Amino acid sequence: MKFTDATANVAVVGASGGIGGAVVQHLNDDPSVGRIYAFSRTATGAVDGKIHHLPIDFLDEESLADSALIASAEKPLDLVFAATGILHREPDLRPEKTMQQLSMHAMSEVFNINTIGPALLAKHFLPTMRRNGKSVFAVLSARVGSISDNRLGGWVSYRASKAALNMVIKTLSIEQARRRPESIVVALHPGTVDTALSEPFSAGVAAHALFTPQHSAACLLSVIDGLSVADSGGFFAWDGKAIEY
């Protein structure tokens, strides 16, 4: 990737997941990246070359604040990539097929992870981005979070949490532009990826449309590389095409 700094400082949150792990590996192979803070719930603090595997509790704001300070202690961040989210968890959390399946407990958990967590992550990480030159804060959203693209219904909690995330990104991009005019804040749709998140729902997906995490990560990093300030606040698919909110 083309970074302002020849030894870019980057953070990946959700680095133990399929897409997050693939993003870390792609960045590790990039000679222009100097250090990678790979945050996940299961990290042990180990250091592997330029990768620093560090623990984070996505639902604990103090943990998010501490993580932001650690990642930016030596230099500002050039890229923050948040690869977090929840769609299902056995046996009690599944995408709703009808409104009768809505649950206050399940809906609250989905919003906590898909919307509130990324919003608080942005609260603490956006101020650590570089002041001069391009920097990118990117979060994984989903095409099903597009209100204008919703023609099938269902999946109320997941759709609504991602739609809300898109609004968070749009809103924070405006505030970020006032403080860091060259900073870019975006939501990204990774495609349908062969990960634990999509596995129960990918049986009917054509082979050519089911991406490996490595392919999706490469596409998303390519999209990030091509972003300009004019794109901040936008929602983009893995192929670089804008998605309507």
Q: What can you see in these coordinates?
A:
By secondary structure, the chain is α/β, with parallel strands linked by helices. The chain has one domain (8-237): Rossmann fold (3-Layer(aba) Sandwich), CATH 3.40.50. It is 33% helix and 18% strand. It has helices spanning 18-28, 61-71, 104-125, 156-179, 213-226; strands at 8-13, 33-40, 47-48, 51-55, 79-82, 135-140, 183-189, 192-193, 210-211, 235-237. An eight-stranded mixed sheet has the order 3-4-2-1-5-6-7-10, sandwiched between helices. A two-stranded parallel sheet has the order 8-9. The two termini are 27 Å apart. The mean pLDDT is 93.
The CATH topology label is: Rossmann fold
| Beta-strand content | 15-25%
Strand order of the largest sheet: 3-4-2-1-5-6-7-10
Any idea what the CATH architecture is? 3-Layer(aba) Sandwich
State the name of the first-level CATH class: Alpha Beta
Characterize the quaternary organization of these chains.
single chain
Number of helices: 5
Distance between the termini: 27 Å
CATH superfamily: NAD(P)-binding Rossmann-like Domain
Radius of gyration: 17 Å
Count of spatially separate domains: 1
Number of strands: 10
Largest sheet: 8 strands, mixed
Structural class: alpha/beta
Q: pLDDT below 50 for ≥5 consecutive residues: which ranges?
A: none
Helix content: 25-40%
Inertia-based shape: globular
SSE order, as H and E? EHEEEHEHEHEEEHE
